């Protein structure tokens, strides 16, 4: 790992940013007014509202049994990976020459009855008393980010507000997407960023966010990654009977094979993991001071546009982790978007 | 003038900025709410409120005679220059070797009775019928930017609001400075920027603003300029009897001599003039699309922090140009300030 030079503008940017901004998240006791929220948007600075969604119907009523009663055998799209690594940089070993490269691994996707999916989530990986090595369980995560509360989960839509009033008023727009996330402690969402203002609401279990501001782009080691996709072994990708029963479970994580996608342009993706800061580091990574926050049920997080975020989860006593988030399109006018592209371009030229 | 390279991040930044942002200023018919204002602050985007200050006591009552009655012979600080170039990059010819360099010329400052100053401002430079070459008049501009409405001009303070309500509420702060500007068509304020959110209110006459966004920094040709100061010829700087009478006037613009200030660190200052775009241009200047707006009496301009601005003026029928502005300290948290320093550092390295 080379070191940074004196008068290196990129190092200076990261250092200046951290000198001027706290790495401890602001905690609000109640929801902000639209104006208070807009001040945070203007500063592109996250905050958490502790208990801001504590009285939502979702937060009060969504137990596993209640959800099963409600959605029953509706088919839902489930992301399946061997180790919880949906959309994550993952080593891929070429069957041709044995060489290993990082690829962006997309999950295997399949439709499953919602109650079967919940049963699978809440079954412990290793039967009590068995050695951990017998854990052959694959990881499943309902994480379609396509406004799924207006589609597959629309039966639950009225359990959450249609929009976040202070965000709608401040940003003058309705959410582009309202998404439900249902998983367990095995899933991790790798460090990435979105061009959305995000209001993320924890319903059951806990989420652990690691946040990196846009100014620290040069520390996250973006690389153009080819993309791969998991397929069930022994078939072209449609494998398993998809009902999540024992037959699938036996194949488990070992039944999934990562295959390269042909004809797909490599996409730039963060390869640095703030929880393993020595791996894939750039000379700038050590300057980055990630912000960490854990959301408890009923907490709301404002995650500003273009912030990198890594998200891991802990289960509720019932064994699930459930959240709902609202994506509001970011404002591409103003200086933030072009300046953030500029940071990326300058960083890429120094590689 | 070299050309920009393909994939030049700086060129891309300026082009992206302009593609995403209009170069025509937003015009509001009425003052914004704090939230509406905060949206502009978040986008770091100027707007003008036509007639927003039309009913201020200042706008309604400040005629030359009224001001004379009110302030009479109070001494006020006046910036004196040969050609209206207070705080402007100005060619300086060394008496030693005859070489010419640009220096940042500070005005000669002297105290004058307010009514004498107004008389001087409103006396035409050239007596009617005389050839223009007989114009030896110096330029005077009351432009102390030290919260002067709370000091020298405090007698006028109640004629304007103490703060701009929507700015105070949105920014959660009182103005750092409320400044009165009194000049005539001969003064021009050179392109520069301030770390303030600025609400600029035209009272009499017109001001012509040329605005350049912070993302275009590489086009304004900032150079570290030594500083100079005008002194009255024949003395060490305190010259003239300072009462603005005929004795001073005869010395006129020709009586002022620019001398280098010793022991003063050079400061980076924009040397590009959007009204003479070929002069002192950088390879990026031609990409810059300045925004232009003229303020009529009663108009208010929101000039966002870190925007470069050049300001020239036209007189009221009485021969003066009067404005009041409110400077609110900018928010140094968030990404704008460090990113704008970054743009400067990267641009400087490419010089
Ligand atoms: O909850 C997760 O696993 C990831 C959330 C996320 O990336 C987002 O809301 O943008
Ligand atoms: O009115 C002028 O001459 C200059 C105004 C200015 O530079 C400012 O308000 O920051």
UniProtKB/TrEMBL annotation, chains A, B:
Stretches for region Disordered: 232-252
Pfam family, one: Cupin_8
Domain (JmjC) ranges: 149-343
SUPFAM superfamilies registered for this protein in UniProt: Clavaminate synthase-like
Domain of life: Eukaryota
InterPro entries: Cupin_8, JmjC_dom, RmlC-like_jellyroll
Record protein name field: Cupin-like domain-containing protein
Originating organism: Chaetomium fimeti
